[in-house]
């Protein structure tokens, strides 16, 4: 089992492998609490995963090192194993789902690993890795359900407590559960009163469901922009540890994750992937009782696919009230568009898209629809604009 002694040992072993990630004060993201970020997105390979894989590989026997290692991953664990194996002069083969972002696939190769793309999701890659392990005699490096991997991740908990001994709560993303198991074990062993909260994407609530049902079952499918935590079934060891150490688990929606990614970009000039941003989303949208508390949100990774970043930002803008769509029913006569534009401008809104539809199912036979996309400050600003339009007789559909 994982112990605080093993986590302390891991911190010594990892000194020459990992990069320090000091806490950063967050401004304007969750004003109800005093929020700090643990930026593991700035870690070597862009993710916390190097800690667990680095410690696991360092503890292998010489015979196991000669045989090489194999792993499966949605991307971040792959890069961690690849770099850790390369530092030890060990061959590595990584099975990735073929849905993994190209950037993560290429990064894994760049750290010195061979890559095997497997059709499906993480769990399919896991099955293929076990098959190749038996066939080729590799040592399997599990992404989360392994005591050495968990202990390596637990070094994050030590660092948080060393830097901020008076922290009230730590919020941690959950996929398979290895990260929060290690972090919670470390924190609770040092300061049992500190709350440790876990967060999952609503589209992949495997640990959330497992804790509530009392046993880990596999989800039929997962769907979320937080691909790093899109795990169908948590580990047996991590389930036990989460059950023992973690105070509560909450879910965040896709829109909430997108809003958190956007907030980190704007407020902190920090890039987080979906899995890394769920802990910030939980603080932003008050999923836990943290008002007036000193809180650390763990940003687990920053390896977001740049091709999807613009779509995520668009979702985040919509969720935070920074953009909005309005459908207005008009009487089709001169001056209507001018009046609408004047009202919006007077309220300080900015029209960025206009679509005029004459063939609509309006109440008036001379009616038409006007579809607008606006740049706005927040939800209160949206309400101000819509109320001003209504006050001048316009019908908001």
Any overview of this molecule?
The protein is α/β, with parallel strands linked by helices and 397 residues long. It is 44% helix and 19% strand. It has 15 helices and 14 strands. It has helices spanning 4-13, 49-58, 62-67, 76-87, 102-110, 122-136, 147-163, 178-190, 206-213, 236-245, 254-268, 274-284, 306-319, 336-346, 379-391, and strands at 24-25, 34-39, 69-72, 92-97, 114-118, 139-140, 169-173, 195-201, 248-252, 294-299, 323-331, 350-357, 367-375, 395-396. Strands 1-2-10-7-8-9 form a 6-stranded mixed beta sheet, with helices on both faces. A 4-stranded parallel beta sheet has the order 5-4-3-6, sandwiched between helices. Helix 1 crosses helix 7, helix 2 (49-58) crosses helix 7 (147-163) and helix 7 crosses helix 8. The model has no long low-confidence stretch (mean pLDDT 93).
Number of strands: 14
Low-confidence stretches: none
Distance between the termini: 59 Å
Give the number of helices.
15
Question: Which strand order spans the largest sheet, edge to edge or round the barrel?
Answer: 1-2-10-7-8-9
What is the helical fraction, as a range of percent? 40-55%
* Rg of Cα set: 24 Å
Which overall shape is indicated by the principal axes computed on the Cα atoms?
elongated
- Class by SSE composition: alpha/beta
> From N to C, what is the helix and strand string?
HEEHHEHEHEHEHEHEHHEHHEHEHEEHE
Q: What is the residue-averaged pLDDT?
A: 93
Strand content: 15-25%
Summarize the biggest pleated sheet.
Answer: 6 strands, mixed
